[in-house]
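Ex. 9. Protein: Solute carrier family 35 member A3b.
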Amino acid sequence: MMSPAHLKYVSLGVLVLQTTSLVLTMRYSRTLKEDGPRYLASSAVVSAEVLKMFACTVLVLVESNYSLQEMQQLLKEQIVKKPVETMKLAVPAGIYTLQNNLLYVALSNLDAATYQVTYQLKILTTALFSVSMLGKRLSLFQWLSLLLLMAGVTLVQVPDPTHPKVLTAGSQFVGVMAVLMACISSGFAGVYFEKILKETKQSVWVRNIQLGLFSFVFGFVGMLVYDRHSLRQAGMFQGYNSVTCAVVVLQAVGGLVVAVVIKYADNILKGFATSLSIIASTLISYFLLEDFHPTGVFFLGALLVIAATFLYGYERKPASIGAIKA
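Predicted C-alpha coordinates for Solute carrier family 35 member A3b:
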Protein backbone atom coordinates (compact mmCIF):
# COMPACT_ATOMS: atom_id res chain seq x y z
CA MET A 1 0.00 0.00 0.00
CA MET A 2 1.41 3.39 -0.99
CA SER A 3 1.99 5.82 1.88
CA PRO A 4 0.34 9.27 1.79
CA ALA A 5 3.77 10.90 1.37
CA HIS A 6 4.56 8.79 -1.69
CA LEU A 7 1.03 9.24 -3.03
CA LYS A 8 1.45 13.00 -2.78
CA TYR A 9 4.48 13.10 -5.04
CA VAL A 10 3.12 10.46 -7.42
CA SER A 11 -0.09 12.47 -7.82
CA LEU A 12 1.95 15.63 -8.44
CA GLY A 13 3.95 13.83 -11.14
CA VAL A 14 0.78 12.55 -12.79
CA LEU A 15 -0.67 16.07 -12.64
CA VAL A 16 2.38 17.44 -14.49
CA LEU A 17 1.96 14.77 -17.17
CA GLN A 18 -1.79 15.34 -17.47
CA THR A 19 -1.52 19.14 -17.59
CA THR A 20 1.23 19.00 -20.21
CA SER A 21 -0.79 16.64 -22.40
CA LEU A 22 -3.93 18.74 -21.98
CA VAL A 23 -2.20 22.00 -22.96
CA LEU A 24 -0.68 20.51 -26.10
CA THR A 25 -3.83 18.63 -27.12
CA MET A 26 -6.13 21.58 -26.48
CA ARG A 27 -3.85 23.94 -28.39
CA TYR A 28 -3.87 21.55 -31.34
CA SER A 29 -7.65 21.07 -31.19
CA ARG A 30 -8.33 24.83 -31.22
CA THR A 31 -6.01 25.46 -34.18
CA LEU A 32 -6.98 22.41 -36.23
CA LYS A 33 -8.61 23.48 -39.48
CA GLU A 34 -11.70 21.49 -40.44
CA ASP A 35 -14.48 21.83 -42.97
CA GLY A 36 -17.29 21.75 -40.41
CA PRO A 37 -17.89 23.88 -37.30
CA ARG A 38 -15.40 23.85 -34.42
CA TYR A 39 -16.46 22.14 -31.20
CA LEU A 40 -18.06 24.29 -28.52
CA ALA A 41 -15.89 24.93 -25.48
CA SER A 42 -18.99 24.91 -23.25
CA SER A 43 -19.93 21.48 -24.61
CA ALA A 44 -16.45 20.13 -23.87
CA VAL A 45 -16.68 21.41 -20.28
CA VAL A 46 -20.05 19.73 -19.75
CA SER A 47 -18.86 16.47 -21.33
CA ALA A 48 -15.80 16.43 -19.09
CA GLU A 49 -17.97 16.85 -15.99
CA VAL A 50 -20.19 13.93 -17.03
CA LEU A 51 -17.15 11.72 -17.64
CA LYS A 52 -15.62 12.76 -14.30
CA MET A 53 -18.81 11.90 -12.42
CA PHE A 54 -18.92 8.50 -14.14
CA ALA A 55 -15.30 7.80 -13.19
CA CYS A 56 -15.92 8.86 -9.58
CA THR A 57 -18.99 6.61 -9.42
CA VAL A 58 -16.87 3.66 -10.55
CA LEU A 59 -14.25 4.50 -7.90
CA VAL A 60 -16.97 4.67 -5.22
CA LEU A 61 -18.16 1.26 -6.41
CA VAL A 62 -14.63 -0.08 -5.97
CA GLU A 63 -14.48 1.37 -2.44
CA SER A 64 -17.84 -0.32 -1.75
CA ASN A 65 -16.34 -3.74 -2.59
CA TYR A 66 -18.16 -3.78 -5.95
CA SER A 67 -21.55 -3.88 -4.22
CA LEU A 68 -24.15 -1.80 -6.07
CA GLN A 69 -26.46 -1.86 -3.07
CA GLU A 70 -23.73 -0.64 -0.73
CA MET A 71 -22.75 2.08 -3.21
CA GLN A 72 -26.35 3.28 -3.61
CA GLN A 73 -26.78 3.36 0.16
CA LEU A 74 -23.55 5.33 0.56
CA LEU A 75 -24.50 7.91 -2.07
CA LYS A 76 -27.97 8.25 -0.56
CA GLU A 77 -26.53 8.77 2.92
CA GLN A 78 -23.83 11.22 1.86
CA ILE A 79 -25.67 13.23 -0.82
CA VAL A 80 -29.44 12.97 -0.44
CA LYS A 81 -29.66 12.83 3.34
CA LYS A 82 -27.07 15.57 3.88
CA PRO A 83 -28.42 18.45 1.76
CA VAL A 84 -26.55 21.13 3.73
CA GLU A 85 -23.18 19.43 3.20
CA THR A 86 -24.02 18.85 -0.46
CA MET A 87 -25.04 22.47 -1.02
CA LYS A 88 -21.62 23.63 0.20
CA LEU A 89 -20.17 22.30 -3.04
CA ALA A 90 -22.39 24.60 -5.11
CA VAL A 91 -20.04 27.50 -4.35
CA PRO A 92 -16.79 26.02 -5.77
CA ALA A 93 -18.73 24.29 -8.56
CA GLY A 94 -20.18 27.59 -9.79
CA ILE A 95 -16.80 29.30 -9.54
CA TYR A 96 -15.01 26.46 -11.36
CA THR A 97 -17.57 26.63 -14.16
CA LEU A 98 -17.05 30.38 -14.46
CA GLN A 99 -13.28 29.88 -14.40
CA ASN A 100 -13.35 27.34 -17.24
CA ASN A 101 -15.34 29.69 -19.45
CA LEU A 102 -13.08 32.64 -18.58
CA LEU A 103 -10.02 30.68 -19.67
CA TYR A 104 -11.54 30.06 -23.09
CA VAL A 105 -12.27 33.79 -23.35
CA ALA A 106 -8.66 34.52 -22.41
CA LEU A 107 -7.27 32.07 -24.97
CA SER A 108 -9.42 33.70 -27.64
CA ASN A 109 -7.97 37.15 -26.95
CA LEU A 110 -4.37 36.56 -25.84
CA ASP A 111 -1.38 34.79 -27.32
CA ALA A 112 -0.30 31.64 -25.47
CA ALA A 113 2.76 33.22 -23.82
CA THR A 114 0.87 36.18 -22.34
CA TYR A 115 -1.95 33.90 -21.19
CA GLN A 116 0.33 31.40 -19.47
CA VAL A 117 2.40 34.07 -17.72
CA THR A 118 -0.63 35.96 -16.43
CA TYR A 119 -2.47 32.81 -15.36
CA GLN A 120 0.38 31.89 -13.00
CA LEU A 121 -0.93 34.65 -10.74
CA LYS A 122 -3.31 31.96 -9.47
CA ILE A 123 -0.38 30.57 -7.43
CA LEU A 124 -0.14 33.82 -5.52
CA THR A 125 -3.90 34.14 -5.07
CA THR A 126 -4.03 30.54 -3.85
CA ALA A 127 -1.31 31.25 -1.30
CA LEU A 128 -3.14 34.34 -0.04
CA PHE A 129 -6.45 32.47 0.28
CA SER A 130 -4.65 29.56 2.00
CA VAL A 131 -3.29 31.95 4.61
CA SER A 132 -6.58 33.78 5.15
CA MET A 133 -9.04 30.83 4.92
CA LEU A 134 -7.01 27.87 6.19
CA GLY A 135 -4.83 29.76 8.64
CA LYS A 136 -1.63 28.52 7.02
CA ARG A 137 1.64 30.18 8.00
CA LEU A 138 4.19 30.56 5.24
CA SER A 139 7.79 31.19 6.20
CA LEU A 140 9.93 33.88 4.68
CA PHE A 141 11.63 31.26 2.51
CA GLN A 142 8.29 29.96 1.28
CA TRP A 143 7.21 33.47 0.29
CA LEU A 144 10.58 33.83 -1.42
CA SER A 145 9.95 30.57 -3.30
CA LEU A 146 6.64 31.98 -4.57
CA LEU A 147 8.40 35.11 -5.82
CA LEU A 148 11.11 33.00 -7.47
CA LEU A 149 8.45 30.88 -9.12
CA MET A 150 6.64 33.91 -10.50
CA ALA A 151 9.90 35.39 -11.81
CA GLY A 152 10.96 32.07 -13.33
CA VAL A 153 7.69 31.37 -15.09
CA THR A 154 7.58 34.92 -16.40
CA LEU A 155 11.09 34.58 -17.87
CA VAL A 156 10.27 31.21 -19.39
CA GLN A 157 7.17 32.62 -21.09
CA VAL A 158 8.74 35.83 -22.43
CA PRO A 159 7.70 35.88 -26.11
CA ASP A 160 10.34 35.89 -28.82
CA PRO A 161 10.77 39.54 -29.97
CA THR A 162 11.65 38.32 -33.46
CA HIS A 163 8.13 36.88 -33.82
CA PRO A 164 5.77 39.55 -32.44
CA LYS A 165 2.04 38.92 -32.37
CA VAL A 166 -0.27 41.83 -33.10
CA LEU A 167 -3.37 42.13 -30.92
CA THR A 168 -5.87 44.94 -30.71
CA ALA A 169 -5.99 46.94 -27.48
CA GLY A 170 -9.58 45.84 -26.91
CA SER A 171 -8.93 42.12 -27.22
CA GLN A 172 -5.77 42.42 -25.10
CA PHE A 173 -7.73 44.11 -22.30
CA VAL A 174 -10.56 41.55 -22.43
CA GLY A 175 -8.08 38.68 -22.36
CA VAL A 176 -6.07 40.06 -19.43
CA MET A 177 -9.21 40.81 -17.40
CA ALA A 178 -10.51 37.28 -18.07
CA VAL A 179 -7.24 35.76 -16.84
CA LEU A 180 -7.15 37.95 -13.72
CA MET A 181 -10.73 37.00 -12.82
CA ALA A 182 -9.90 33.35 -13.45
CA CYS A 183 -6.86 33.59 -11.15
CA ILE A 184 -8.92 34.99 -8.30
CA SER A 185 -11.73 32.47 -8.79
CA SER A 186 -9.25 29.59 -9.10
CA GLY A 187 -7.48 30.52 -5.87
CA PHE A 188 -10.69 30.92 -3.87
CA ALA A 189 -12.48 27.84 -5.23
CA GLY A 190 -9.43 25.62 -4.84
CA VAL A 191 -8.82 26.60 -1.21
CA TYR A 192 -12.56 26.42 -0.41
CA PHE A 193 -12.69 22.89 -1.81
CA GLU A 194 -9.50 21.96 0.08
CA LYS A 195 -11.07 23.25 3.31
CA ILE A 196 -14.16 21.11 2.77
CA LEU A 197 -12.13 17.99 1.93
CA LYS A 198 -9.87 18.29 4.96
CA GLU A 199 -12.74 19.00 7.38
CA THR A 200 -14.66 15.84 6.53
CA LYS A 201 -14.09 12.10 6.54
CA GLN A 202 -16.14 11.76 3.39
CA SER A 203 -14.62 10.04 0.38
CA VAL A 204 -12.89 12.41 -2.03
CA TRP A 205 -14.73 10.65 -4.87
CA VAL A 206 -18.14 11.27 -3.27
CA ARG A 207 -17.20 14.92 -2.88
CA ASN A 208 -16.28 15.06 -6.57
CA ILE A 209 -19.63 13.54 -7.54
CA GLN A 210 -21.34 16.30 -5.54
CA LEU A 211 -19.09 18.90 -7.15
CA GLY A 212 -19.70 17.42 -10.60
CA LEU A 213 -23.47 17.50 -10.20
CA PHE A 214 -23.50 21.24 -9.58
CA SER A 215 -20.82 21.88 -12.22
CA PHE A 216 -22.87 19.96 -14.78
CA VAL A 217 -26.00 21.98 -14.01
CA PHE A 218 -24.17 25.32 -14.14
CA GLY A 219 -22.24 24.34 -17.27
CA PHE A 220 -25.31 22.99 -19.08
CA VAL A 221 -27.35 26.10 -18.33
CA GLY A 222 -24.46 28.29 -19.46
CA MET A 223 -24.16 26.32 -22.69
CA LEU A 224 -27.88 26.72 -23.40
CA VAL A 225 -27.72 30.46 -22.74
CA TYR A 226 -24.51 31.45 -24.56
CA ASP A 227 -24.39 28.87 -27.36
CA ARG A 228 -28.10 28.40 -28.05
CA HIS A 229 -27.81 29.50 -31.70
CA SER A 230 -24.98 27.08 -32.45
CA LEU A 231 -26.81 24.30 -30.62
CA ARG A 232 -29.89 24.83 -32.77
CA GLN A 233 -27.82 24.71 -35.95
CA ALA A 234 -25.53 21.73 -35.35
CA GLY A 235 -26.22 20.24 -31.92
CA MET A 236 -24.18 19.83 -28.76
CA PHE A 237 -21.52 17.53 -30.21
CA GLN A 238 -20.73 19.54 -33.33
CA GLY A 239 -17.10 19.43 -34.36
CA TYR A 240 -16.27 16.48 -32.10
CA ASN A 241 -13.48 14.19 -33.30
CA SER A 242 -10.76 12.01 -31.76
CA VAL A 243 -8.74 15.08 -30.71
CA THR A 244 -11.76 16.67 -29.03
CA CYS A 245 -12.49 13.44 -27.18
CA ALA A 246 -8.88 13.36 -26.00
CA VAL A 247 -9.25 16.91 -24.64
CA VAL A 248 -12.45 15.93 -22.78
CA VAL A 249 -10.83 12.83 -21.28
CA LEU A 250 -7.75 14.76 -20.18
CA GLN A 251 -9.93 17.44 -18.58
CA ALA A 252 -11.93 14.82 -16.69
CA VAL A 253 -8.81 12.98 -15.52
CA GLY A 254 -7.27 16.29 -14.52
CA GLY A 255 -10.13 16.98 -12.15
CA LEU A 256 -9.58 13.64 -10.42
CA VAL A 257 -5.82 14.12 -10.17
CA VAL A 258 -6.26 17.62 -8.76
CA ALA A 259 -8.66 16.21 -6.16
CA VAL A 260 -6.00 13.71 -5.02
CA VAL A 261 -3.35 16.44 -4.95
CA ILE A 262 -5.57 18.68 -2.83
CA LYS A 263 -6.36 15.77 -0.48
CA TYR A 264 -2.77 14.65 0.10
CA ALA A 265 -0.81 17.85 -0.67
CA ASP A 266 -2.22 21.38 -1.13
CA ASN A 267 -3.17 23.92 -3.76
CA ILE A 268 0.19 25.70 -3.76
CA LEU A 269 2.07 22.49 -4.63
CA LYS A 270 -0.54 21.96 -7.35
CA GLY A 271 0.44 25.36 -8.71
CA PHE A 272 4.10 24.35 -8.81
CA ALA A 273 3.21 21.18 -10.71
CA THR A 274 1.29 23.27 -13.23
CA SER A 275 4.25 25.59 -13.68
CA LEU A 276 6.58 22.66 -14.29
CA SER A 277 4.14 21.35 -16.88
CA ILE A 278 4.42 24.66 -18.75
CA ILE A 279 8.17 24.15 -19.01
CA ALA A 280 7.61 20.56 -20.15
CA SER A 281 5.13 21.78 -22.79
CA THR A 282 7.68 24.29 -24.05
CA LEU A 283 10.39 21.64 -24.31
CA ILE A 284 8.05 19.28 -26.16
CA SER A 285 7.14 22.10 -28.52
CA TYR A 286 10.84 22.62 -29.23
CA PHE A 287 11.92 19.02 -29.71
CA LEU A 288 8.78 17.55 -31.33
CA LEU A 289 6.81 20.43 -32.87
CA GLU A 290 9.92 22.51 -33.60
CA ASP A 291 8.00 25.78 -33.17
CA PHE A 292 10.02 27.18 -30.25
CA HIS A 293 13.66 28.21 -29.94
CA PRO A 294 14.86 28.51 -26.31
CA THR A 295 17.09 31.39 -25.32
CA GLY A 296 19.27 32.19 -22.32
CA VAL A 297 16.26 33.85 -20.70
CA PHE A 298 14.34 30.59 -21.00
CA PHE A 299 17.05 28.56 -19.25
CA LEU A 300 17.33 31.19 -16.49
CA GLY A 301 13.58 31.04 -15.92
CA ALA A 302 13.60 27.23 -15.84
CA LEU A 303 16.39 27.28 -13.25
CA LEU A 304 14.42 29.70 -11.04
CA VAL A 305 11.29 27.54 -11.21
CA ILE A 306 13.20 24.37 -10.28
CA ALA A 307 14.98 26.19 -7.43
CA ALA A 308 11.67 27.57 -6.15
CA THR A 309 10.10 24.10 -6.23
CA PHE A 310 12.88 22.57 -4.13
CA LEU A 311 12.89 25.55 -1.74
CA TYR A 312 9.17 25.31 -1.05
CA GLY A 313 9.29 21.51 -0.67
CA TYR A 314 12.21 21.72 1.77
CA GLU A 315 10.35 24.22 3.94
CA ARG A 316 7.24 22.05 4.15
CA LYS A 317 8.92 18.92 5.53
CA PRO A 318 9.72 20.21 9.04
CA ALA A 319 6.21 21.67 9.35
CA SER A 320 4.55 18.34 8.54
CA ILE A 321 6.67 16.49 11.11
CA GLY A 322 5.74 19.02 13.76
CA ALA A 323 2.08 18.65 12.90
CA ILE A 324 2.27 14.88 13.34
CA LYS A 325 3.91 15.23 16.75
CA ALA A 326 1.28 17.71 17.86
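Check your answer against this statement. The mean pLDDT is 78.
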